[in-house]
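cron nightly-structures :: item 1 of 1
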Amino acid sequence: MVEKFERNAFVRLKANANYWGGKPDFDTVTIKFVPDAAARVAEVESGNSHVTLEMPYEEYDRLKGGPLAGVAAPISDIGMIFLNDIEVMTDPNVRMAAAHAIDKQAIIDRLLSGYGVKIDTLQTPEYDAYDASVSVPYDEAKAVELLAASGFGPDNPVKFKIQTTKGFKPKDYEMIQAIVGLWRKVGIEAEIEVYEIAKHYELRAADQLAPAAFYNWGNSVGDPTTSTGFAMFGPSPHSVWDGEDLIGMIGPLWGEADEAKRIEGWKAVDKYIAENALVIPLLQYVQPILHAPGVVVTPHASGALLPHLMKRA
């Protein structure tokens, strides 16, 4: 139960002794709002907080097994790049080149210390409509070829803006820096704009995102309507891709009563999206959690840090 709330500061929860699952181990839990990743690490390292999450993976590796304990597990969140059907993103060659020029596994290995799962659709391996046969491989030569077909190349780069958060998710900004570097090699010059996550929501709801925008999408139920559906259905306030062909494919699936047919329909949609590079899925996140030795934390697949799953050691 909420005992006290201060905007942009904290919320304090009080245990419900009559909770159906049994009384929680802790009488009160205070959740602090600390948007800066380094500050979150300092909070738990100094003992001012007992549990924290979403820190840089090198910090997680440094601190786990030392003064702090740690757990890291795949969650339902994915990292992705929205493509808005404006400006140069109306050119399929530009979109496909941007997708093929990204070495996702190298980014996971080098920037995220291996904590991540490469994906090529908006489904993770745990989602109901995951299809391992859909692949958008890293292919620098193909990216160069696609751009050349539209008159672009390293000497005449295609230019657009990409928006991203910085510190909202581990290495979000650094990932986009790496991607922009890979793009530059094939003939794409992208300008990075940093914004707060609240600004992303505002721009996306108004269909005013830049031609490319990094985001982390969560789907705690694992159903394709909650990932591909809301993210890519043009009339949805969560989508910035308004193509009528995709709307026509997705529309009937909202009311499809045959479950097997529904799932196969979503797989077909994901394949079409991948083949036409209407969005760029990057990775499934692995969530790092650090905690004091006196607390046992059970991670949740949704990425939520649930107080009732925290126990005394």
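cron nightly-structures :: done
The chain has a mean pLDDT of 94.
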